[in-house]
Design a protein that fits this description.
Structural class of chain A: alpha/beta
CATH architecture of the largest domain in chain A: 2-Layer Sandwich
Distance between the termini of chain A: 35 Å
Oligomer: homotetramer
CATH topology of the largest domain in chain A: Dihydrodipicolinate Reductase, domain 2
Strand content of chain A: 15-25%
Largest interface: A-B, 49 and 49 residues
Largest sheet of chain A: 7 strands, mixed
CATH class of the largest domain in chain A: Alpha Beta
Number of strands of chain A: 13
CATH superfamily of the largest domain in chain A: Dihydrodipicolinate Reductase, domain 2
């Protein structure tokens, strides 16, 4: 038997992806499947597309299954207490939620307008963007959100290499509806979503400070970003289009070069000069980055595509767990997508 | 009987919308329905959702039906010769294509990398954005493209009022698939479009110079724009998200005020501080503009939504024809949408 | 001023369509807009695609606006008491709900497993399928459901003419998601609906007895129907595919002839031998019927397409009100669809 | 190295799925990737969601790669000559096309209105529905079409067990658009497909005789089927709703029992009394069957769901190849789906 994994929050979309990925993982086995309101339901009822077998979702129990690794796919604010308990029990903890993504409380408060649950422990969490942050020795990993993942992978190397200015960055991004979670609300019905697009959280979305913070942690330079997310009528997929001013003398080659240098050894990030489509990555843990330069305005335009539930959530969490556990980074993950 | 109208290019999506709108127009009657490869086909076969009756698409004939007004919904380069003939015959000509949208040949060449068909006549065309350009005395009207319509309506008043800087403007826009026309290509199949998004024409789309040119004609100030269009999986609807740097001291009130001043008397443009959804305008000739200010970066973020086939094409053409013919601007047009 | 109309249940999908249609009606004005939980909200907030103006949804009030006609778009069981009050006040009442669609209580009970709200009054209601039932003298009209509308229009004339057997009829139908109403439930989220189809209510859907009952009322012969509805990922549109055994000697000509005879004077029903698409009728009050005969098995296969919210709900209600009020049957209604 | 596989027709949707599945197969390696008009293109260009690596599509070559097994995903009529050549070379041949699905030429001619390419060889082909036909000793396997797969799996056991009558069967089925192939035509554009449904091939679809033929081969009893396929706006997924008259005394238990008996040992077919959704099987090789009985009419209503490109094409082909090669039937195949 391999490593033992607990999944907390198994009934949501990200939780379902965690089950799917770990069920197919060669070295990790799911030993505790926990949900909140869905506790007691059969896995096959909650996720009919998975091999439910006779598994039933359990109530949260930090000790159940004696997990070597615990994945937390919980609403904001719900991770911290459970994480503390799991850490105390010796588990590697990978948090897919937002509770531990900031290194200091002030930044968290600015983003969330509330005090972080365990401010004293924020510094002990490693930011789980494994292409740009070393997570190999981490015991607590906070996986970034879907927008910050796609955006930071494309932006941070350019700022780090001095190819673009950190000021006046515009991030305009599109997400499929699973990014909004699985809850049924008037805004997530088919009638409200199909055949329509909208911007939301203009100027106020919490992923903006997270992107700025992440880039600062990685490059030492904090960018200034305007961020507008849009909801588009599709299930999965996230596309981030990033506009940044080229520094003097920088050209397309420099943009591409900075990205290629950053990801020369990365199995899941592919850099090119073609515009990626989200259908090329849906189902896989791949991030495709297409780099352009707008000559008349001296702007780098970089387009980054991921599956919001895989590289933007569950896949990245497994990738981090692999590295922190000494497994092959790619174990249980795929670079092959599903479409059409 | 009312005014007589000829529609050239009746078999495409914009052509179909022209038929729909003019069939419902109280003062204009369709007297010549012309198509190119679809000539000879029944209207009801080409557009089964319309009241085809026994109407059949005709070959192009500038004289047929002695049109008071002619609408041209043709591919790039196909309008100019026909327009010249129609003008000579005394018709009001409304061109939905790109042949006459630039006031001078040099700009046209920069956008299209070819000489305009009738360079000497470019100056005789009026730019058909009737909220911002007076078309009442025009006899030749070049209706703007869908992206320039949504974008210029939101941007030009801000530049005209000095509320935002004309430099460093970013326009990031999303369009439904009907914006790509009705032809069947590998890129427009359901398999290629559904459940995916992509950016296209990054840095090279011809609507960028058109937007810059339009704003310059309207305000006297030529902005510098980076423009990225995206294709999203829906039939209709276009959303343009515009980022522009606020000038010193400008605030949200100034942004909203400049827009409200511009459209106080406009029946089809509504200004607010809410993020519009394309489903709110699909089917109508309305443009909804939602204005925001991103305080940390001093950026105006303005979101503009239209139906690409109505306000972005056929509806705006009818609106222009109404004004230039002395009819009520709103005749035959609706502010009521269809969704869901 | 024209007739005064009250709309009860204005916040749902069918209610929104009633507002859209009556706002555009030449002889009827909306004088009372009522909703239940949405009372107090602005119409423009609830239906942003409509011309909300300064209208606000009111609490239910049978006397408000002294309506000449009242439209009820309410959940099952909610219509009866209000209808009784409105009838007493002298209004023409058009009920889009299910409370009054059965002529006798026993049939109602079989379909709904509960006693009808006002069993004594069932006989006073006219079944609002105006192509097949005379509603001109009615003061209380129960408009059929969407599946029974599309199905009965295609099936009843064939049974009435003796062209097909009333036994062993199979009705297999597809509906867009608006047919399930506007409430947000786990089953109506985009995530649950997009990219998937399902059958539901197999053998138990309440529209089966309604179809049998309707055909019996119209033809005097009660058919035996197996009915399976399916939910498909689209907003609007309903397609019913009907299989019925040809009686001895009947051929395609007889099938088409029986339908053409029934609808020779009907402005909204078109009969042909082509397979209709729902996109051809979405937005219009049209029902398209395509008739086929499967020679090897001696089966009539008839396909019927409507917009579930127009001919299947609000449009048919307006059509009934027009006839019962002595107006032109087509007033305020369109045979022109919207797609794409 | 494992078995060597050649894939002919690798550029289509089914071909892409074959590459995806065999790339992930533990015991089979792709050694020849061939396409017709797409020969010379990079695999990564044709299928950007796959791991293209440096692979390039080749021209057809029956000898290339000395295949142990050859998969043919070709248009009607194109398989036969190539298959003959491959058989001569000793390859196991698995044909996903229609050329060899009939055991005798007369049936083929009735379905296709033309003589089969190699009428003399039809008898040498095994029908590749491995749950119901023994393919373990086959060297030439003709995999059924998507509609016949879903339908025959649900229907044949009921007829075989005498639970339903073979006469008067109605099959009403829904397919995603990938079932129509990858070619760009006016009927497969997003504009023609999204937000609409239609029936097609009413009474004339070639899968009807294939279903009848398949059931006859399996049970010895030829049913009489009326079949209507519908196109619905989704990428993948196929749902077949089957109506058959219960024989005297048969009840739901008998229906379920006949199916359970048939699939007690089948790893990919699951029988229940719940209505399956296509989203539960998309991406997997699973067929879900939900059985119902309509008491009032004595009708068995059975709903069968598959992924048309997996169990309905590439997955079933791999399953057949596994069995005929002595591998584990499930090798390289999954029972885990993808949705949402």
């Amino acid at each position: 038997m391999g490593m033992k994994a607990a999944i907390f929050g198994a009934s949501g979309y990200a939780g379902g992806e965690l089950v799917r990925l770990i069920d197919g993982h060669p070295s990790i086995d799911v030993t505790h499947l926990a949900a909140n309101t869905a506790a007691g339901k059969a896995l096959g009822e909650v996720h009919p597309h998975l091999d439910g077998g006779d598994r039933v979702l359990q109530a949260f129990d930090a000790d159940a299954g004696a997990p070597d690794v615990a994945f937390l796919a919980l609403p904001h604010g719900a991770s911290a207490p459970l994480a503390a308990e799991l850490v105390a029990g010796g588990s590697l903890v990978v948090d897919l939620g937002a509770d531990h993504r900031f290194a200091d409380a002030a930044d968290y408060e600015k983003a969330y307008a509330t005090t972080p649950p365990h401010p004293d422990q924020l510094g002990e969490w490693t930011f789980g963007l494994p292409e740009l942050v070393d997570v190999s020795a981490a015991s607590r990993i906070a996986v970034p959100g879907c927008y910050p993942t796609a955006t930071t992978l494309a932006l941070a190397p350019l700022i780090g290499a001095g190819v673009v200015s950190p000021d006046g960055v515009v991030v305009d991004a599109l997400s499929g509806v699973t990014g909004a979670g699985r809850s049924a609300t008037p805004a997530t019905t088919f009638g409200a979503i199909a055949e329509s697009v909208k911007a939301y959280g203009v100027g106020t979305h919490r992923h903006r400070p997270e992107m700025e913070h992440a880039t600062a942690r990685i490059t030492g330079v904090k960018p200034s970003i305007v961020f507008t997310p849009h909801l588009v009528p599709m299930q999965r997929g996230l596309l981030s289009t990033i506009y940044a001013t080229l520094t003097d003398g920088s050209k397309l080659d420099d943009v591409v070069g900075a990205l290629e240098d950053a990801y020369a050894a990365a199995p899941f990030v592919k850099v090119g000069t073609e515009s990626p489509q989200t259908r090329w990555v849906v189902g896989s843990n791949t991030c495709l980055i297409g780099a352009f330069v707008d000559e008349p305005t001296g702007t780098a335009v970089v387009v980054s595509a991921i599956d919001n539930l895989v590289k933007g959530a569950a896949g990245q969490a497994v990738q981090c767990a692999n590295i922190a556990s000494g497994l092959d980074e790619t174990a249980g993950l795929s670079t092959v997508g599903w479409m059409p």
